């Protein structure tokens, strides 16, 4: 038990060290419950109105995007995760610069990818920043499967998420920054390919 506790403390320290250099303020929160009818779709965290949280604040982990706050109570909040059916986020394939929307349709799909777009297995998909909720540059996952499908214009592209929701014990809430919609992709923004154990947020200097 002592060995397990020591390993847990080491992991928490590593996670905090990796995240604290981002340009956004990150509030570390503990997961205190899960929705029994949708165990990975919604997480209950131990912070709320008392900590000035609000609906739609992004939730992240070291390995990438977790979701967004759906409801805020006085001393707890509910996070809707990327594993909840209907969850959507604007995204970009950083290997090719191709934009789309990541949607959970029972599976995580990189949607609106044209049939002739050069998406490849293993490509890294990040938030694009073309949203009033999510800043650009948060790792979402990697392309795991590409199908032709029946659509004449678009092809289904399946994503493996970077974060394993069922293994999380805590999440970080992004705050302290006004997140506004980007009307165009910033070419000067230098996307770097990250390993699956890293989180990249603009301004972190990493």
UniProtKB/TrEMBL annotation:
InterPro entries: Cell/Rod_1, Cell/Rod_MreC_2, MreC, MreC_beta-barrel_core. GO terms for biological process: regulation of cell shape. Keywords: Cell shape. This is Cell shape-determining protein MreC. PANTHER family: CELL SHAPE-DETERMINING PROTEIN MREC (PTHR34138). Belongs to the MreC family. Residues 31-174 form the Rod shape-determining protein MreC beta-barrel core domain. It comes from marine sediment metagenome.
């Amino acid at each position: 038990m002592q060995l397990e506790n020591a390993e847990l403390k080491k992991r928490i320290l590593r996670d905090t060290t990796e995240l604290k250099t981002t340009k956004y303020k990150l509030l570390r929160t503990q997961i205190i419950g899960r929705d029994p009818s949708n165990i990975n779709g919604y997480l209950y965290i131990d912070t709320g109105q008392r900590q000035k949280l609000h609906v739609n604040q992004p939730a992240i982990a070291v390995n990438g995007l977790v979701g967004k706050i759906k409801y805020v109570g006085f001393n707890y909040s509910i996070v809707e995760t990327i594993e909840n059916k209907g969850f959507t986020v604007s995204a970009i394939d950083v290997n090719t610069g191709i934009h789309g929307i990541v949607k959970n349709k029972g599976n995580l799909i990189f949607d609106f990818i044209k049939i002739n777009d050069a998406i490849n297995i293993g490509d890294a998909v990040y938030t694009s920043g073309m949203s009033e909720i999510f800043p650009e540059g948060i790792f979402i996952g990697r392309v795991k499967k590409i199908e032709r499908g029946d659509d004449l214009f678009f092809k289904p592209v399946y994503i493996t998420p970077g974060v394993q929701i069922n293994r999380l014990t805590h999440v970080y809430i992004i705050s302290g920054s006004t997140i506004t919609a980007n009307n165009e992709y910033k070419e000067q923004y230098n996307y770097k390919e990250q390993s699956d154990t890293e989180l990249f947020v603009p301004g972190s200097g990493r």
